[in-house]
Amino acid sequence: MTTAGDSITKANIVASMAALSSTYNTGIVWGTHSQPFQTDITGGNASGYSQTLEADISDTNITASTLTTNFRAYATLLSRIRSVRLQKWYQNQDDIRSSLQSDETNITNLKDSYKVDMTGGPVSENIIDASDLDDFVSALSTTINANRTNTVLIEEFYCHSNCHGSCHGSL
Question: What is the mean pLDDT of residues 1-21?
C-alpha cells in the first residue's frame, strides 16, 4: 500500500500486479492439466496466468490509460479462475437425477467464455497518485473475488449401465 499523494512508481505498479497474481493464481485444481468434465470447459492450467506488466511499462511517465488497460486485461484473465461445482448423475428410467454419483467443488481455470469484463478505474485524462492506484486495484480485486466465489454449477448425466435397456427402450 502507498500513502495518499505519493507518486506512482514502476515498483508500485509491479507490486500491485504481483499482489493480484499471488492472490488469484492459487488453489487451481481443475484446468487443462486435469479436467474431469465430459465437455472440456477449462482454459488454462494450475499455474494460472503470469503477468508481464513490468516488461510492458517504462520507467518514465505512465499514463492512467496504460494502467487501466493493463490492469483490466489482467483482471479479466484472472476472472476466469472460478469455483466450479461438478455433479455427475446416473439416470434411471425417466428420472435423469435419480442417483447422484459425484459432487465436487474445486477452483477451476475456465475458458474465455466464463470471464468477466472489468470496468471502472481512473479516467484516462486524470493525473492519479499512488492511493488512486491502490483504490483501483482494490476494486478490481473485489470484482475478481466476487466472480471467483460465485460458483458455476455443471451437471452431467449418464445412463446407468445396468438400466441401459430401460433407458433406451432396447429391452
Answer: 74
> Could you give the angle at the alpha carbon of 152 between the alpha carbons of 148 and 156, nearest 5°?
150
For residues 75 and 47, is the Cβ–Cβ distance under 8 A? Answer: no
Cα dist from 84 to 46, 67, 109, 113, 145, whole Å: 14, 31, 9, 14, 14
C-alpha separations of 52 from 20, 55, 57, 121 in Å = 13, 6, 9, 20
What is the helix (H) or strand (E) element at residue 13, kind and residue range?
A: helix 10-24
Distance CA 74, CA 67 (A): 11
Q: Which three cell numbers stand for residue 112?
A: 474465455
Q: Name residue, grid cell 468434465.
A: 37
CA distance 112 to 34: 17
CB atoms within 10 A of CB 40: 11
pLDDT in tens, 138-156: 888 999 999 999 999 999 9
Query: Do the Cβ atoms of 30 and 102 come closer than 8 Å?
Result: no
pLDDT digits (tens, 9 = 90+) for 78-134: 999 999 999 999 988 788 888 999 999 999 999 999 998 887 666 656 666 777 778
